[in-house]
Amino acid sequence: MVTKVLTGNYAVAEAVRLSNVDLITAYPITPQTTIVERLSEFVDMKLIKARLMRVESEFAALAAAYGAALCGARAFTATSSHGLLFAHEMLWWVAGSRVPMVLAVVTRTVGPPWNIWSEHTDFMGQRDCGWLMALAENNQEILDTTIQLYRITEDEEVYLPGMLGFDGFLLSHTSEPVDIPDEDVIKSFLKPRSQPYNMCSDNILTMGNLSNAEDVATMRYDIHKSMENAKEVIKEVDREYEKLTGRSYGGLTECYRCDDSKYLIVAMGGWVGTMKDVCDELRSNGYDVGVLKVRFFRPFPEEDLTKAMSSVKGVLVFDKSVSLGSLGHIHSEVLARTYGLSNKVVVRGVIAGLAGVDVNPNDIRGIILKFIGDVEEGGYIGNTSEWFLGR
Amino acid sequence: MICYKWCFILIGNNKEVNVKLYGRGGQGVVTAANVLVRAVCIAGLWGQAYPFFSAERRGAPVTASVRISRERVRSRYTNVKPDIAIIFDHKLYEILNISQDVRDGGTLIINTQFKIRTSDRYRIFYINANDIVRKLGLFFTGWSLVNMPMLGAFSKVTGLVNVDDLIRSVREYLHGDLLELNVKAIKIAYDEVSEAE
Q1: Which CATH number fits the domain that encloses residue B13?
Q2: Chain A residue with minimal CA distance to B81?
């Protein structure tokens, strides 16, 4: 193991180097670009055997990776924001074909107006495509989760593609120490490439033909079942990875001081670190606050959430994305899991950090204390959203 | 190493020290922030560098911030009043309204050929880094590379990172003649940085 100071983007590149990838497709977009730039340097220096293919668009980047993956290659590409939206249709093709591959999504606001900073709407917009979706909190988790995703997506219980999201700039261009595992360790952790079928084999196969309705519906149901199976695989992979590297992320969620908490903060991504610091401070001032970090958004960690909510008074959900005309994406998922709880839980959603609006510990502390005050007063019944638009 | 108050702050109860580097596109602001993080890690501390990006281009103001802490830094937000400002070009002091940015009681380290007056609000140090790199011929595509000597001055002034750890870090980022010239520049700046009177 060696420790290096890496940006989030370089952490992804190191993970791809270690994961014995065969094909990388590259099309630039801020803030993703330095991932494929660094990978291009690795190819040039012969540090990886992968072929790097420059393509004409993000749609083509995913299409080419898809094609290679169909023929047995371990494939990687990365994109952000408008690029991800342009590739949206291809996401369905990859998942619908049950082809494992990994995509890095460096989250960025979708225009107009033009904006390069992070929010999670581009990522959340892909939630119905049948991809596994994880969002990382720090650069170490970016490296570790990228490697884990190759193992998870190629598990025969899963056989679905996976995307790793992380905040643009807040992580992608922020440098911090990252432990890089030894090649041998990852080689033993990642098995040889495995997938349900190979389009380039001698067996004649077709993909994407017109099918009858029942067959398609059944295939959709199969994807859903595999998503359910993935929950156990994700936890198992996390445990095995911990044995090799000493690092565990709790599987689908990470419970930070939430075991005995009365108030639960739920969030995803880079700002969870800030929330953990605020949580420590509030705890030392006598507030029973805990943080539940949602690591995987698909499959959604229903069981973890239900368990964490079963002994609390209030849940405060922070979303860095919103379904305009409805709620924040995590908020609506959380609300759906409050039905059937034996305890009465008050839930509030907070939509904050949109378009890269800075959210600091004072902002988070203020929002939490106001929520606790409202619930303790007893008048607040919850299920509403608040918007934090900046100071 | 002279341990001024910032070094004592980390030894004491304070959680982290915030450093902000102000320069121009092409002066190596982002590289300097990364080198500084690596140097504090060599010293057994934790560092996190977060540059501010918008529409960067050569010559335009660029900033990058560094958190230095004894423990792992988990927090991620950008609106921080720095304790220490490293200013690569003294003209930026007014252009970027740095006096409004830095925390009262903070420290400024300014690259300038002028003598600077002291202030009640800050401790101010100055170094003529342009002159150091000119004498060494430390240029890249016409730009004088003042980023490493500014870190040399930072090392001396704050005591947050010792100059040997700084040079070890630089060796991981630069190579050949460029490396050796930068090491010389760091040592000269370390010796020459002075406090405003």
Answers
A1: 3.40.920.10
A2: A360
- Selection from B159, B136, B148, B125 nearest residue B1 by Cα: B159
**Domain spanning A253-387, CATH class:** alpha beta
Residues of B in contact with A174 (CB under 8 A): 48-50, 76
A58-84 burial, b at 16+ Cβ within 10 Å, e below that, comes to: bbbbbbbbbbbbbbbbbbbbbbbbbbb
Quote the CA–CA distance of A96 and A129 in Å, as a whole number.
Answer: 8
Interface test with chain A among B76, B166, B171, B173, by most A beta carbons within 10 Å: B76
In which residue ranges of chain A is CATH 3.40.50.920 found? 253-387
Residues of chain A with CATH 3.40.50.970: 2-245
Number of domains in chain B: 1
Q: Could you tell me the residue range of the domain that residue B186 belongs to?
A: 5-195
Of B50, B54, B74, the CB nearest to A174: B50
Q: Is the ipTM of this complex over 0.95?
A: no
State how far the Cα of A139 lies from the Cα of A336, in Å rounded to an integer. Answer: 31
User: For the whole prediction, is pTM greater than 0.80?
Assistant: yes
The three-state (H, E, C) secondary structure of B29-87, written as one string: HHHHHHHHHHHHHHCCCEEEEEEECCCCCCCCEEEEEEEEECCCCCCCCCCCCCCEEEE
Q: What span, in angstroms and rounded, lies between the C-alpha atoms of A280 and A275?
A: 9
Q: Per residue of chain B (197 residues), what is the pLDDT tens digit? A: 455 556 666 655 567 999 999 999 888 999 999 999 999 999 999 999 999 877 667 788 899 999 999 999 999 999 889 999 999 999 999 888 898 899 999 999 999 999 888 889 999 999 999 999 999 999 888 888 999 999 999 999 999 999 999 999 999 999 999 999 999 999 999 999 999 98
Fold of A2-245: Rossmann fold (3.40.50)
Nearest residue of chain B to residue A137 (CA atoms): B74
Q: Note whether A274 contacts B74, CB cutoff 8 Å.
A: yes
B148 and B186 Cβ atoms separated by less than 8 Å: yes
Strands, E assignment, chain B: 16-24, 46-52, 61-69, 84-87, 107-111, 123-127, 139-140, 143-144, 194-195
Look-up: residue for tokens 């007063």? A377
